[in-house]
UniProtKB/TrEMBL annotation:
Ranges where the MoaB/Mog domain occurs: 4-171
Species this chain originates from: Candidatus Moduliflexus flocculans
HAMAP family documented for this protein: CinA_B (MF_00226_B)
Protein name: CinA-like protein
Family, as annotated: Belongs to the CinA family.
InterPro entries tied to this protein: CinA, CinA-like_C, CinA_C, Competence-induced_CinA, MoaB/Mog-like_dom_sf, MoaB/Mog_dom
Length: 415
């Protein structure tokens, strides 16, 4: 019985092709032994969305529809789904009161358009959302189960786990057994990775690898199928061991782990601290690290030293270094890392300087040229010269990822 996910909203298509909400649903289903057969991405235009809904109902038995609430796609999907399934919408006064209370708490007046958020489909089960106000809905239609979800990954996960998976029998949606896992890597190009893993990736539908790129990071998605679940799990463990052995230090995590989470855990385990000196990334590395709860235990400070004057006055970089080598140089990156570490008295100092573009380049120093340095007492200062492709945001993202990965490497060496 086919399983399908429909992601509604132009922001999913334009801003984030990886689509975290879809990944959350697919991951939880796979953990339960249910493989997704179709994934559709569609804008919030009503005619296109209605076409996709009718196609999905015609070909799939378990359908998840995920749509953003604030941008209005959730209400559009709810209205069209009700029409396609020949239901109707009625006003839920309890939900309406909750919406009004939110506006009152903010000191705002609820606009009339907000009332449609309190419309609920008839003959659909409303599923509680413990992380947010907007509920999910489960429709039973002939041989289909259709689930409408708000498009926030942190809200979706508990709804799937607590409200949906207990109702599903994996045997209904697959033949035999299936299992999978995700390995997170950083620093190895996709072409090199595929070459290293080609002996493990077997065609034929029983064992295969997919890759998702995100700047300098690549997620390796492993899927194994078979007749017996214990055999599938055994082969999946073997795949994992083989890949980790071949890729070694490039594998930094499993599943939904982020690089900043792994770095934070290593810093905590080693009772180490870090300070950051950022130029071209404009504070992005600090943003990533401080997104992690408990980061105050290891994150001492972050300085955005964008100008040459800031590098000299805030980080104690010698004017002679900048004059002789330039702001974008290994020497300046090293001086920045050592300066921030000395000033903050931390275990590590991390620094980045580069040309994010589109302007500011020269023939000798093109757009995407970045120098990254990590200073520590035990190993001194390590630095790396990088040439990143992409636009300004891509260069900043790749720089932040690589800097965190360099710090991870230093932490692993200093056990």
């Amino acid at each position: 019985m086919p399983v399908e996910i429909i992601s509604v909203g132009s922001e999913f298509i334009i801003q984030d092709t990886r689509n975290n909400s879809v990944a959350v649903i697919a991951r939880q289903l796979l953990d339960a032994g249910i493989e997704v057969d179709y994934v559709s991405f569609v804008s919030g235009q009503e005619n296109r969305l209605e076409d996709i809904l009718r196609q999905a109902i015609g070909r799939s038995n378990l359908i998840f529809i995920v749509a953003k609430v604030l941008s209005g796609e959730y209400d559009t999907a709810k209205k069209l789904l009700t029409r396609v399934l020949k239901k109707r919408l009625i006003l839920n006064y309890k939900l309406l009161d909750a919406i009004k209370a939110e506006y009152d708490a903010r000191g705002d007046t609820m606009p009339p358009t907000a009332e449609k958020q309190a419309l609920v489909p008839t003959e659909a089960e409303m599923l509680d959302n413990e992380k947010g106000r907007t509920p999910a809905f489960l429709f039973a239609h002939e041989q289909n189960s259709v689930i409408l979800l708000p498009g926030q990954p942190d809200e979706i996960a508990p709804i799937i786990k607590q409200r949906i998976l207990p109702r599903l029998d994996p045997k209904t949606f697959r033949f035999g057994a299936v299992n999978g896992m995700i390995l997170k890597t950083c620093g190895l190009p996709l072409s090199s990775m595929k070459e290293l893993l080609k002996s493990i990736d077997r065609e034929g539908g029983q064992q295969y690898i997919n890759y998702v790129e995100d700047g300098e990071e690549i997620s390796i998605i492993l899927t194994v199928k078979g007749e017996i679940q214990t055999d599938v799990e055994s082969r999946l463990r073997l795949m994992n061991e083989q890949i980790v052995k071949k890729l070694e230090r490039y594998v930094y995590g499993v599943g939904a782990e982020t690089l900043e989470e792994v770095v934070g855990r290593l810093l905590t385990d080693r009772k180490a601290t870090v300070a950051l000196a950022e130029s071209c990334t404009g504070g992005l590395i600090a943003h990533k690290l401080t997104n992690i709860a408990g980061s105050s235990a290891y994150m001492e400070r972050g300085v955005v030293a964008y100008s040459n004057d800031a590098k000299m006055s805030l980080l104690d970089v010698s004017p002679n270094i900048i004059e002789r080598h330039g702001a974008v140089s290994a020497e300046t990156a090293v001086a920045m890392a050592e300066g921030i570490r000395w000033l903050s008295q931390t275990t590590y100092g991390v620094a980045v300087t580069g040309i994010a573009g589109p302007g500011g380049a020269t023939p000798e120093k093109p757009v995407g040229l970045v120098f990254i340095a990590v200073a520590s007492e035990q190993r001194g200062t390590q630095w790396r010269k990088c040439q990143f492709p992409g636009d300004r945001l891509e260069v900043k993202t790749r720089t932040a990822q690589t800097a965190l990965d360099m710090l991870r490497g230093e932490l692993l060496r200093e056990k």
